[in-house]
Amino acid sequence: MRVLVADDERLMADMIGAGLRRQAMAVDVCYDGDGAVERLGVNRYDVAVLDRDMPGRTGDEVCRWLVDAGVTTRVLLLTAAAGIRDRVEGLGLGADDYLTKPFAFAELVARIQALGRRSAPAVPPVLECDGFVLDVGRHTALRDGRVLSLTPKEFAVAHVLLRAAGRVVSAEELLEQAWDEHADPFSHVVRVTVMTLRRKLGDPPLIHTLPRAGYRLGPAA
């Protein structure tokens, strides 16, 4: 899942970003509404976490821009305003969810995951293929009942491949969905991560490489 975090409280934004990356999400962070619009216009995000009270272009205005532009990114607004009227107003702008500060980080993660599952097409919280089970909510992975110790990037790549449901996924698509904007598109990071994930999954092989096309997760054809 790829997430954008926009909050003018830099420490808060950086802490949220670091925490979400530990949950195997690809996260870009910016500190104002203009930066959020710039990134939303270039990258495809599953969820945008927007501080409602940013100076300059506010989270409200970014939310309106998303709606007007027809962007399908789900929006979670963050704000210190806890009144019912504030929540109703925020949701009325087109936001999908609303969370007041201060908040428990575990709740933020759960809400982002829930919004990600509401993307089109809807993605179930537990994905399975040929004995490989990935539970996104619990952040666990099993192969034939064996617990797998996956790094956040391996978990993210597995999630993208399982979501594809047997479709071939290109290296470029994996880079876009599992890494943030700072990833080097000319590096071998995708190939290396797929290689280590394949090794951890064990036999029979579950990830198949299609030369010049990408990767497919599933039983051998």
TrEMBL record:
Presence of the UniProt keyword DNA-binding in the record: yes
4-aspartylphosphate: modified positions: 51
GO molecular-function term, one example from the UniProt record: transcription cis-regulatory region binding
Domain OmpR/PhoB-type: 124-219
Keywords of the record: DNA-binding, Phosphoprotein
Highest taxon above the source species: Bacteria
GO cellular component: cytosol; protein-DNA complex
SMART domains: REC, Trans_reg_C
UniProt DNA-binding region: 124-219
An annotated GO BP: regulation of DNA-templated transcription
Keyword DNA-binding: yes
Location of the Response regulatory domain: 2-116
Protein name as catalogued: DNA-binding response regulator
Record organism: Dactylosporangium sucinum
